Amino acid sequence: MTMARSSSSRPAVATVLLLAVSALCAALSSATVTVNEPIVNGLSWSFYDASCPSVEGIVRWHVADALRSDIGIAAGLIRIFFHDCFPQGCDASVLLSGSDSEQNLGPNETLRPEARKLIDDIRAAVHSACGPKVSCADIITLATRDAVVASGGPFFEVPLGRRDGLAPASRDLVFTLPGPDTDVPKLLGKFKNRSLDAVDLVALSGAHTVGRGHCGSFNSRLPPNADDGTMVPSFRRTLAAKCAKDPNAAQVLDVRTPDAFDNKYYFDLIAKQGLFKSDQGLMNDANTNRTATRYALNQAAFFDQFARSMVKMSQMDVLTGNAGEVRFNCAVPNARRGDISSGQLGDEGLAADA
């Protein structure tokens, strides 16, 4: 009797499994974005197919493993990617250590050490498998994409072949990074200077669907400062009480699904629960509110444009061919490796592992 029931249930079980697999495939398909954007000379969709065919698998495994322990690393990787590319291009200069490091400047002082360490751990694994073929700049790009995917966001192909920069960006360039108190007109100006438009601004800001901000980055919107009416009163009171108790407290950027890469960030803006002035301004400014509202209503549209804008940003002022280098340590230019082995560099060469 038991055997009969088991036998007769097989078609039903098979049907359930088939439906489950179909649903999974549909979900993966809906979260995959094909980006057909012009590619900078020197970059390629298949750059490492011969020299390091395992690179994407290695990066994906390390990112997934890290996020299982600390989902916050996803936001850390996205921030490193943006802070690397925006000032002088995607050249991994933000990872360089030393007295003139970009990490010593205000916009970068809170870059997550765990995310920096993960990038160099991946570099070590990739170089162990393939030799020093893959740049830290490409590893940042791949790791960021995979962190987006692992958090629930879209998969998209990224062109590869970047080389690593030999020196950090200047102070002036680093301070072109938009801050949390930047209003939309200034944001649009900063993005235009980097060949990014209003749609790119709104889509890339959607990365704030994951991550956290500390009180110092949004206290200009809290008492005793004037209430400009752009934050719902109950949310303002909650944040004010939290920051009064601990001025260094962290607050999630997306109050609805803080650890998931989705479009709920835009719902927050509609509800006047955007944390930063730069976030909430997207809903209040006529140049951006239609796009922000569209992404709140249509996650697929957000995912599609986010992928396109990320690929666009990933090609900013890249070094290719004989320019730059492939670093043997993401924190140190190759010319300084002798200083590490001789002990002349002190702790600078270990900065990425802090």
How would you summarize what this structure contains?
The protein has 354 residues and is an all-alpha fold. The chain has 14 helices and two strands; from the N terminus they run H-H-H-H-H-H-H-H-E-H-E-H-H-H-H-H.
Protein architecture, described:
With 354 residues, the protein is an all-alpha fold. The chain contains 14 helices and 2 strands, in the order ααααααααβαβααααα. The chain has helices at residues 2-30, 55-69, 73-88, 113-130, 136-150, 171-174, 184-193, 198-205, 233-245, 264-270, 277-284, 289-297, 299-313, 337-342; strands at residues 212-214, 250-252. The chain has a two-stranded antiparallel sheet with strand order 1-2. The longest helix has 29 residues, at 2-30. The radius of gyration is 22 Å and the shape is globular. Residues 1-30 and 339-354 have low confidence and may be disordered.
